[in-house]
């Protein structure tokens, strides 16, 4: 898989105005980097910023620098969603609305959702299947806590294998091709302590054995401009899921350049 997929998860870090300003800067950088066309970028702002960030991306397309949504190298993602179609679900945001905002990717099962909002594998699976049914691409996030990692890689393989299998339960072979997996060790998220590219690469190779289709597997967890090149160069790593570093224009631009020059 030559083209690297770089997903920025802005979490709840940015206000609406900072989100649109950042989207403008990233779009400019992306059009500069586009010549080689070997990176795809997905921006995942908060729900309230989706519409405005989408407008920024489309206005740049309209000016001819970025054209077709699939080939322009920059698309919109949501951080979560409600799998029920419609109804009395106070505070939730449904897939129909996301689609009308031109969202193409949806993160499901992020460790913060699992931890703070008690999302189970069953709910993650429901969200993943609903996303596919709505015609969007789910990014299934998996990762082990430190309590599992410190017991050795064999335990990690079993833990991640189970998360992947449960997350993908009931998905047809055809739909599977639209899924992206992000391996994000929980202890590496937001800690400044990334996994080693060697260990991450081994995990990715293991995940590929568990999934009966060739789909992109991204690494996430304290990705920065300092380590991005090593991760994208490592075997079996198809791209990056970037949290905090993706909220800073210069830092994220440096990550994009590292991914492009792999
Ligand atoms: P981080 O977050 O890059 O800030 O560690 C990654 C993520 O949660 O996706």
Q: Would you mind describing this structure in some detail?
A:
44% of the residues lie in helices and 16% in strands. It is an alpha/beta fold. It has an eight-stranded parallel beta barrel, surrounded by six helices. α1 (16-33) runs parallel beside α11 and α7 (153-167) crosses α9 (197-210). The longest helix has 18 residues, at 16-33. The two termini are 13 Å apart. Residues 66-71 have low confidence and may be disordered. 2-phosphoglycolic acid is lined by residues 9, 184, 189-190, 220-223, 241-245.
Helical residue percent band: 40-55%
Helix-and-strand structural type: alpha/beta
Q: Could you give the order of the helices and strands?
A: EHEHEHEHHEHHHEHEHEH
Q: Largest sheet, order of strands side by side?
A: 1-2-3-4-5-6-7-8
Counting DSSP E segments of at least 2 residues, the number of strands comes to 8
Q: Main β-sheet: number of strands, strand sense, barrel status?
A: 8 strands, parallel, barrel
Q: What separation lies between the terminal Cα atoms?
A: 13 Å
List low-confidence stretches: 66-71
Count of DSSP H/I helices: 11
Tell me, briefly, the overall form.
globular
**Percent of residues in beta strands:** 15-25%
**Overall mean pLDDT score?**
93
Instruction: Supply Rg.
Output: 17 Å
Name the assembly state. Answer: single chain
The ligands bound in this entry are:
2-phosphoglycolic acid
Question: What's this model, at a glance?
Answer:
The protein has 262 residues and is of the alpha/beta class. Helix content is 44%, strand content 16%. The protein has an eight-stranded parallel β-barrel with strand order 1-2-3-4-5-6-7-8, surrounded by six helices.
């Amino acid at each position: 898989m030559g083209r690297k997929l770089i997903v920025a998860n802005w979490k709840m870090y940015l206000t609406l105005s900072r989100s649109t300003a950042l989207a403008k800067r990233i779009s400019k950088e992306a059009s500069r980097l586009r010549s080689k066309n070997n990176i795809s970028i997905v921006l995942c702002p908060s729900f309230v910023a989706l519409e405005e960030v989408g407008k920024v991306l489309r206005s740049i397309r309209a000016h001819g620098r970025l054209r077709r949504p699939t080939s322009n190298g920059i698309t919109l993602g949501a951080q979560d969603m409600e799998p029920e179609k419609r109804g009395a679900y106070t505070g939730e945001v449904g897939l129909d609305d996301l689609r009308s905002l031109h969202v193409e990717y949806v993160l499901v099962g992020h460790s913060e959702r699992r931890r703070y909002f008690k999302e189970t594998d069953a709910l993650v699976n429901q969200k993943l299947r609903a996303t596919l049914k709505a015609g969007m691409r789910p990014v299934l996030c998996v990762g082990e806590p430190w309590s599992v990692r410190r017991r050795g890689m064999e335990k990690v393989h079993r833990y991640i294998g189970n998360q992947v299998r449960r997350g993908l339960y009931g998905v047809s072979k055809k739909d599977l091709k639209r899924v992206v997996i992000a391996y994000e060790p929980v202890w590496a998220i937001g800690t400044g302590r990334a996994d080693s590219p060697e260990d991450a690469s081994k995990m990715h190779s293991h995940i590929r054995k568990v999934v009966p289709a060739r789909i992109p597997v991204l690494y996430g967890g304290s990705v920065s401009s300092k380590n991005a090149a090593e991760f994208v160069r490592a075997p079996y790593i198809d791209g990056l899921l970037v949290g905090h570093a993706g909220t800073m224009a210069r830092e994220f631009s440096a990550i994009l350049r590292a991914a492009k020059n792999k």
